[in-house]
Amino acid sequence: MQIVIFGATGMVGIQLAKQALYNGHNVRAFGRNVFTADLPKNDQLELIQGALFDQQQVYDAIKGTDAVICSLGGDSTGSDMTRSLGIKNIITQMQKAHVPRIVALGEMSILNADNDTLIMDQPNFPAKLLPINREHLKAYQYLKASLLDWTMVCPPEIIDSEATGNFITSLDYAPIPDSYNISAADLALFMLSELNKNEFIKHRVGICS
Fold it and tell me: Fewer CB within 10 A of the terminal residue: the chain, N end or C end?
């Protein structure tokens, strides 16, 4: 499979690239700092230095691929709008390039709560986290409104540790019991698995260790 990874230089993105290459995929890694990141040297890896908001560069990266993986980061305040406007551009260029499949990284707070509101809408949700979680919510809303075959994986805290293969998932809700963390490697493992299995198309997925 030919995959393009946006956010390939982040903690999850690097794991995605390494595991996708290990599984025999051809990978395009897109980002501003791809030539200085800790990405593996591999003949099946193409490094594409580009700007996320540049329509032509994003289109060129997507064109000819089978699927997109999006693991965009951003600042902790949510003020840079990288996640929402970035995925908006990716969606637009995917539709132009006729590439329908995307697995994107979200956040646990945009999953449903028990009363069918969102976790981030609950009275006890920390107010200081709302700006960044509104960014994740906008990204989800852009995906939901698109015609793409999308899946948004919504983890709790992501920790920098190796894959264990021991994690649980839940459709549109946080898993129970919830450990409130997941390793970056296990998260990448699940995202790539979902890209092949297509079990959660047009849904959010809660995940934890």
Answer: N
